[in-house]
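User: Can you recover a sequence for this backbone? Please restate the input before giving your answer.

Assistant: Of course. Working from this structure:
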């Protein structure tokens, strides 16, 4: 299976983000919140929100790359879902926490 991150896998548009944030299901963790909702298509889409208080630009960009890479490798688990990952803090251990939550919640799909 090809593991790329094409435009079709990117969640875009403020209306769709707002809809998922307001009406989607939420998984909360110490360093992040994960919002998800069915998208009505057979393609998973990912959106990432990282506020400036989570770290400097280098940290935020590295965080986005790590999330995208994890999504790329596991996107067959998320078929038909729109997922938004909102990072509260990019301190040590955040990635393993988010990864564990995503695997536990979506691993059985």
């Amino acid at each position: 299976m090809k593991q790329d991150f094409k435009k079709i896998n990117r969640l875009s548009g403020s209306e769709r983000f707002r809809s998922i944030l307001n009406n989607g299901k939420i998984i909360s963790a110490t360093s992040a919140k994960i919002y998800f909702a069915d998208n009505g298509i057979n393609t998973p889409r990912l959106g990432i929100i990282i506020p400036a208080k989570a770290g400097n630009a280098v940290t935020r960009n590295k965080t986005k790359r790590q999330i995208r890479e994890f999504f790329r490798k596991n996107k067959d688990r998320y078929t038909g879902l729109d997922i938004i990952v909102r990072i509260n803090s990019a301190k040590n251990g955040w990635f393993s926490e988010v990864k564990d939550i995503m695997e536990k919640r979506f691993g059985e799909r």
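That completes the design. The two ends are 17 Å apart (CA to CA).
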